[in-house]
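ARCHIVE CARD
SHELF: 3
SLOT: left
DATA:
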Amino acid sequence: MRSGGGFATGRGRRGELCGPGFAFPFCMTFADFKALHQRSQTEYLAHHGHRLAERREDSFDLTLFAVAGFYAETWRSRGEEAVLFIHVFQKPAGLGDYLKLVQLPHGL
C-alpha cells in the first residue's frame, strides 16, 4: 500500500510500522531514501539506521549503516560532524572494505 507521499504504508517486512504518522517511514525503500535530500538522509540514518561499523580512508571517517534492504555509508572529513557524502548501495560487494574489521568471538 502507498500513501500520497510516495512512501510505503502498513507494516514492513520485519513487521515495523510505517507510513504518514511518522516523520519518516520506518520501512523506507532504497529508491525513497535516494530521493531524499542529504540532510534528510542523515537524519533518517541517525534515527532508523543500524550502525554496523566505522573505518577511515585517507582523510575521511566513514560509518556504515544497515537499513531495511540496503546499506548507507556516510563520509565525513576526519574529526568533523558534517556529512560530506552518503554512498547508498544494495549489493554485499560494497561491504568488502569492512570485512577485515569484523572480529568474531573466540570459538566461532
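SLOT: right
DATA:
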Amino acid sequence: MWSCSIKTYLRTHLCFSILYITYYLQKAPFAAFAARTRGEYDWVNIKIFPNTKIANQESDTYRTAFGDIIEKYEAFDLTVVRHPTFIQAMNYSIKEFYEFCEKWFRKFPSFSE
C-alpha cells in the first residue's frame, strides 16, 4: 500500500489540471482514498498495488502526467497494522491495472507486465 502527498504549483491551467487529477483519482481502481487538503499539501491519497513494480510504474507515470503542476511529491510504503473494512481498492486484476493506465496515459510509454 502506498500513501502519496502532493503540493501543487499555482499555474494558469491549474483549474483544468485539478479537475483532471480529481477525475483520475475518482476512476483509478487502485485509489482507496483521495482528498484535497488545507495545509502544507494540496492532495493526500492512498493507492493499493499488488506489488512494488506496479506501484513504481503508476507513481512514475502519475508524476510525468501531472508534473507540470506538482511542486512536491512524496510517496510512502505503508505496513498496514489494521485493515479498514471499507477498502475495495484491491478488487482489480493486474490486467485491469494495465488497461486503466493505457487508457489514461496513452501519450506515455506503454505499460507491460
